[in-house]
Amino acid sequence: MNYSAQGFKSYVVPDSARPGFTPILRNLAFYKDSMLNVYPELETIYDLFWGSVEQVPDRDFIGHRPYDPETGNFLPYVFQTYKQVGERVTNASAGFIKAMLMLSKTEQEKQKVLARKWPIAIYSINRPEWKIADKACVTQSLYSVALYDTLGYDSMLYILDHCEAPMVVCSLDKIPKIMLNIGKLPRLKIIVCMDSLKDSQHSRSVPSPFNTNSIRILREWTNHCSIKLYDMEEIEELGKSSGIPHFPPKPEDIYTVLYTSGTTGNPKGVVSTHSNYVHSVKFGSIGRLDRTNTQVVISYLPLAHTYGRQTENLNVFAYGKIGYFCGDISKILEDTRALQPTSFPGIPRLLSRFYDEIRKKTIDAPGITGKIYRKAVAEKLAKFKKTGNPRDEFWDPTLFKPIKSMISDRLTAAGSGSASIEPKVLDFLRVVFAIDMIEGFGMTETSAVGLKQVPGDPSSGNIGTPLPGIEIRLKDVPEMNYLSTDTPCARGELLIRSKTIFREYLKEPEQTREVMLEGNWFATGDIARINEDGSISIIDRKKSIFKLSQGEYLAPERLENTLSKHPLVSQSFVYGRSTKSYPVGVIVPDPLTFVPWATKIVGNKTFEELVKDPKVVSEVLKEIQAYSRRSKMNGFEILRNIHLEHIPFDADNNQLLTPTLKLRRFDAAKYYNDILENLYEE
Asked: Where is the AMP-dependent synthetase/ligase domain (predicted)?
């Protein structure tokens, strides 16, 4: 590969190539360590947050849309200033410590509380109280552990027990979920409800099935189980009168533990320090964020995920304004129009939905309307690919301004992360919104940062180049035929080295050692390609785990093991793409059970005829989906479409199995490529 090609977008560290590895690549504009010594006063998230409170105390900070139970509508945004939030954080942080001290029965227990460094779990949708609870942890050198429903109820209980949190801060609707299995959570002592537990105020909460009687029962239930129940107002009042001062963390202290579903077993707790996330802010902002103009961002990406968390941290760094969505993703555009954000953090699943809806009203519209939009989009795309400028003085005011207004009149930039986005979707949205829209790559283990395109880059199908402070290289994966010596482009597993790399997987030293290689390189498990222009593209996964477009991980082996227990299934191959929100699959039925079952539906036919019968395929899919739900699979894990195969996977003929009868997943994806394409198109 020619690393010295003209216009190469990455800096190649001289003499850094090694056998089995590519050279080390860095950011082209910030390739020297001396260029990265920015904002030395920021060493922790405490410094970041309280520095912004000190600099812009009277600027609006976090806002939400109050719910009006009389009309059933959400009202305009109401904001709290940096100073107001700072006061609440100070009080809540002291309240957390005071509440734990009040439960301490011995001097040893008291000293353990005062030593800090214990976790508080946070469990709710994105809302102001999430932010206040998180920053309250920071203010007392505690660390937050995020809980979320997507992983499933059992995983939520596992996380809460595994992290040993003595306290949960959660929304009202989550309390019964926790209490149903409180016996499995012996370390949990305190629940802090984000919603008011006062009868007079509860009617103003976000809509929920709870009423005054429900709250009374919850209080009796928690009291019976020796769980202390507070609401946020009570915790803040407790802290206000406690006299407990701030207890700032050190850079090496834990900031957060985020659990990721990227394994075949239980979720892994990714332990990240203040230093990790502060460097993520610094490296992610160099040359990109303006602290002089107020940034406004919508918060809807789960704060239990690193992308959502770090989007907010970057906005705090920029002295920005955060508006929380109402909790219903179907109303996200209603929220953005009310908020008028300047930037939009996107994920492929949602951006693809925008793409489909806008196409219907523009280039796919009938008659003269569609003809005009097709001409305008084609002209803008051609211009954009040449210049990198998505704006047009003629077409934008006349045709595209209303499209941009569907999100925000003030929108100037958007991003796509958490999974790969289809190039046609990215390019189309760039020109119809007339904004800089860039794709990037980061992981929980890298504190959300890694690689990113630069504004004005007209390319698509890649994740850009390393951010400042990030080093990358590729490692050979010979078993998949990906080599650093491949031509014209080097290919291999993407390795990342940076001060943003996590400390460890909580209580999982062996799994930590598996991904942390010699020289402090983190092995991502993603197969990447260094393109001829120096940009990077993700092209495959090394492990049999893949990420869907909404950012959730699937472990296909676990799903296949579950499906194999169904009497109709002999073998299965579960497949997914990072540009799609659901998996599809190839099923080899068991002839002994399948043939009698299928003939009852369509009459006597051969095995080969039965697997090709559309009615049979449809009934098998329904059966598998019902079985998957009974097996407690998450919604995003359930197959949406299937192909029935009458020829078994084997090691000799189609060679889809190894000699030890394990599925060759990479080969199976190649073998069924056309069929898998059709499964997604149907």
From this structure: 80-506
Element (H, E) at 201: helix 199-202
CATH of domain 82-273: 3.40.50.12780
The per-residue pLDDT for 556 is: 86
| Peptide linkage before 66 cis (omega within 30 of 0) | no
Q: What is the 3-state secondary structure (H, E, C) of 383-445?
A: HHHHHCCCCCCCHHHHHHHHHHHCCCCCCCEEEECCCCCCHHHHHHHHHHHCCEEEEEEECHH
* Closest by CA position to 468, among listed 21, 8, 35: 35
Q: Count the Cβ atoms, other than its own, within 10 Å of residue 456.
A: 12
- Picking from 66-75, 236-245, 258-267, 296-305, which range would have the lowest pLDDT averaged per residue? 258-267
Just give the CATH number of 1-33+469-547: 2.30.38.10
461: closest CA among 431, 489, 438?
438
DSSP class of residue 544 equals S
Could you tell me which residue, 481 or 597, shows the higher pLDDT? 597
Average pLDDT over residues 595-609: 94
Tokens of 294: 């107020």
Average pLDDT over every residue of 67-80: 92
Write down the mean pLDDT value for the chain: 92
Report pLDDT digits (tens) over 648-678. Answer: 998 778 888 865 567 888 889 999 999 999 9
Closest of 532, 522, 540, 539 to residue 10, by C-alpha: 532
Alpha helices per DSSP H over 532-657: 556-563, 591-602, 607-612, 614-630
Residues 6+ apart with CB under 8 A from 539: 491, 527, 528, 529
Q: In the chain, where does the domain assigned CATH 3.40.50.12780 lie? A: 82-273
Handedness of CA 436, 437, 439, 445 (dihedral sign): positive
Q: Are 565 and 575 in contact (CB under 8 A)?
A: no
What distance in Å separates the CA atoms of residue 212 and residue 209, rounded to the nearest whole number? Answer: 10
Element (H, E) at 230: strand 228-231
Contact 66, 204 (CB under 8 A): yes
Closest CA to 5 of 28, 33, 32: 28
Residue 144's H or E segment, with its range, is strand 143-147
Whole-structure pTM value:
0.84
Task: Provide the 10 A C-beta neighbour count for residue 662.
Answer: 12
Q: Which CATH class is domain 555-681?
A: alpha beta
Residue 129 token pair: 């109280």
Among left, alpha and beta (phi > 0; psi -120 to 50; other), residue 447 is left
């533990």: which residue's tokens? 257
Q: At residue 17, what are phi and psi to the nearest 5 degrees?
A: -70, 140
Q: Where in the chain is the domain with CATH 3.30.300.30?
A: 555-681
Rama region for 462: left / alpha / beta (φ>0; ψ in -120 to 50; rest): beta
**Quick one: tokens of 69?**
């139970």
pLDDT band at 612 (very low <50, low <70, confident <90, very high): very high
Burial tier of 441 (Cβ tally within 10 Å: 0-12, 13-18, 19+)? buried
Alpha-carbon distance 287 to 433, whole Å?
23
**How is residue 432 written in tokens?**
């119809």
Work out the burial of residue 154: count CB atoms within 10 Å of its CB; fewer than 13 is exposed, 13-18 middle, 19 or more buried: exposed
Inter-residue contact 448 to 309 (CB < 8 Å): yes
> According to CATH, where is 2.30.38.10 located in the chain?
1-33+469-547
Q: Which two tokens stand for residue 449?
A: 């940062």
Q: What percent of the chain has pLDDT over 90?
A: 78
